[in-house]
Amino acid sequence: MPKFTDKVALITGAAGGQGTAEAELFVREGAAVMLTDIDAAKGGALAARLSGVGGRALFRVQDAASEESWKEIVAATLAAFGGLHILVNNAGTIARQGIVDTTVEAWNRTLAVNLTGPLLGMKHCAPAIRDTLVKQGGGGSIVNISSTAGLTAHDDAAYTASKWGLRGLTKPAVLQFSAWNIRVNSIHPGQIADTGFFQSGGEAFAHAARAAIPLHRQGTPMECAELVLFLASEEASFISGAEIAIDGGYIAAGLASLRNRVRDEYKI
């Protein structure tokens, strides 16, 4: 029996990378999914592909930073599927600028999408999840997609600030939504191949990052999606407020791993 039969999930940033992998897994496990993104062509094609294999999937264009857009998306989800159980705050953007080079425009847009967007998502989705649970029972789940940039330093100032902020925002959500039986967790992907973020960094950045990962490889969107699926499932029913790095050991041991490699290379 699929794990998410009769469950409804809303996944933002679903048109590529991790969002697409999440959509595929949730549909595979029986969930109805509302998919959103600013890329209408890719998002619509994904929903059509998932529906074509028997899934229940709809797509709506959404600017995650717009409160009106969030109101419309939640209303459309409830109208189409009759409830909401799961929110995955996956939409994100990056401005590859350090502090000195950061423009106010890039700063404001990055925080609007990466931090204000999840705030608005939780603001409008959590009550809808609560009301669905009152009618149907069970528990709800919110998964915020942060980054290892929310756990340590990163070159990009606005992106780092937004991901530390999302990590922090997850904590009051745990405090405020636990009474509604909604669990809230954040995951912190490191270098994840086959995503727009990964490709925008360039090969030199990817090579340097790989050298510091103890497992000596990048992760995949599907590996991140599997973690999100687990956190949304009943198997994770006592996990709330966790911040889980999915990074091949980078946060735990990246510095020591790189040090040891340099030591062995120079036979010191």
Can you offer a commentary on this structure?
The structure is a single chain. With 268 residues, the chain is of the alpha/beta class. Helix content is 51%, strand content 14%. It is built from 9 helices and 7 strands; from the N terminus they run βαβαβαβαβαβαααβα. A 7-stranded parallel sheet has the order 3-2-1-4-5-6-7, with helices on both faces. β4 (86-89), α4 (104-136) and β5 form a beta-alpha-beta unit. α1 (17-28) packs across α8 (221-232) and α3 packs parallel to α4. The longest helix is centred in the middle third of the chain and has 33 residues, at 104-136. It is globular. The protein starts with 7 loop residues before the first strand and ends with a helix. The mean pLDDT is 95.
β-strand amount:
5-15%
What percentage of residues falls in helices of 4 or more residues?
A: 40-55%
Q: What overall form do the CA principal axes indicate? A: globular
End-to-end Cα distance, whole Å, is 56 Å
Q: What is the count of DSSP helices, taking H or I runs of 4+ residues?
A: 9
According to DSSP, the number of beta strands is 7
- What is the radius of gyration computed over CA atoms, rounded to a whole number of angstroms? 19 Å
- Please describe the biggest sheet, giving its number of strands, its sense, and whether it closes into a barrel: 7 strands, parallel
* Sheet/helix structural class: alpha/beta
Mean pLDDT over all positions: 95
Q: Low-confidence parts, pLDDT < 50 over ≥5 residues?
A: none
Trace the largest sheet across and list its strands. Answer: 3-2-1-4-5-6-7
Strand-and-helix sequence, N→C?
EHEHEHEHEHEHHHEH
